[in-house]
Design goal:
This protein is an alpha/beta fold and about 325 residues long. It has one domain: Metallo-dependent phosphatases (Purple Acid Phosphatase, chain A, domain 2). About 25% of the residues lie in helices and about 25% in strands. It has eight helices and 14 strands. The chain has a seven-stranded mixed beta sheet, with helices on one face. The longest helix is centred in the first third of the chain and has 17 residues. It is globular and about 45 Å long. It binds fe (ii) ion. Fe (ii) ion binds next to α3.
């Protein structure tokens, strides 16, 4: 079990970085993409001074050893503990490739990570945030895997973005029960591929008749594009929600437990909307750097502010990219 101390009287800040995903070649000295990512991470570490950095998946590309190690060195350079979950690209080479990275990452004293039960994926683990020995909140770090088979209503088979699997949801319920037994009443899930409920939340929250691709971040922070009851929403949706196409039951499990009030996902690089849906904040993290594909207007990280009763707020911290609007 991993636990990390919160200082009494002071908020605990989690900085989530998502999808840094540079390839080996982009880490070469002087490469512009490396510079942008380094500037993003360093700027945020200096500006936020977080107590913990989480990375919501797609750290690099499976098999790009140099890239995984370079990212670990960059995170180490902040002096702040950091904790990853794996994304589809990390998982793409199979569990052996992930395990090779894990073996190296566990030699980094600032890396917080546990393998978790092998039967449910790579790296399902819990970070307890404790104040005076009492857990005030916990981060449930979950592996959303790579791809999963799907059969549509017409009986056609396809391979789609993966989902949390049933035994993983059982594991989740067990972790929540253990946290509740220890007096903890709040938790946040950090994972890579959004759960299905992100689709339902956006459908419920976003006004009909507006093309989401035309909404800029500044205009998405207000009630102009959100339905009544969802005015606290903010952030944009410039691409579709790439979850598994059918409800995997994760949101039912979350609602039934009544413990997790925040979910943070990555994966969709130009989506960063944050919607409070049925009592749970479903957030897309802001993406860090230009890896894979990006929009320089959506560069930065996402901050969870945790007080003595749990997560108090979720906000994006943008980092301007030199030479862009
Ligand atoms: Fe991804």
């Amino acid at each position: 079990m991993i636990s990390i101390k919160k200082t009494p009287g002071r908020d605990f800040l989690v900085l989530n970085l998502s999808d840094p995903q540079l390839g080996d070649g982009e880490w070469e000295a002087g490469h512009p993409n490396r510079k942008i990512l380094e500037n993003c991470v360093k700027t945020l570490a200096d500006r936020i001074r977080p107590d913990l950095i989480t990375v919501s998946g797609d750290l690099a590309w499976a098999g790009n050893d140099l890239a995984y190690d370079a990212l670990a060195d960059l995170l180490d350079s902040t002096g702040i503990p950091w904790a990853p979950v794996w994304g589809n690209h990390d998982n793409q080479g199979g569990p052996e490739k992930v395990e090779a990275v894990v073996c190296r990452y566990l030699t980094h004293p600032l890396c917080l990570y546990e393998r978790g039960p092998a039967a449910i994926g790579n790296g399902n683990y819990v970070i307890r945030i404790e104040e005076d020995g009492r857990p005030v909140s916990a981060l449930i770090m979950m592996d959303s895997h790579d791809r999963a088979p799907y059969v549509n209503e017409a009986g056609e088979e396809s391979n789609e973005w993966a989902k949390l699997i049933p035994p993983q949801l059982d594991w989740y319920r067990e972790q929540i029960a253990a946290l509740a037994a220890d007096g903890c009443s709040d938790s946040a899930i950090i994972l890579h591929i959004p759960i299905y409920a992100y689709r339902e939340a956006f459908r419920a929250a976003f006004r009909e008749g507006i093309d989401p691709k035309t909404v800029l971040p500044a205009d998405a922070d207000g009630d102009g594009c959100w339905n009544p009851g969802y005015e606290s929403s903010f952030g944009v949706l410039w691409e579709g929600i790439c979850s598994y196409p059918a409800d995997e039951g994760a949101f039912d499990a979350i609602r039934a437990c009544g413990h997790t009030k925040t979910v943070v996902a990555g994966h969709d690089h130009v989506d960063n909307c944050v919607i409070r849906y049925e009592g749970v904040t479903l957030a897309y993290s802001l993406k860090a750097g230009p890896g894979c594909y990006w929009d320089p207007r959506l560069n930065g990280g996402t901050v969870l502010t945790i007080g003595e009763s749990g997560v108090k707020s979720v906000r994006h911290e943008y980092v301007k990219v030199e030479g862009t609007e």
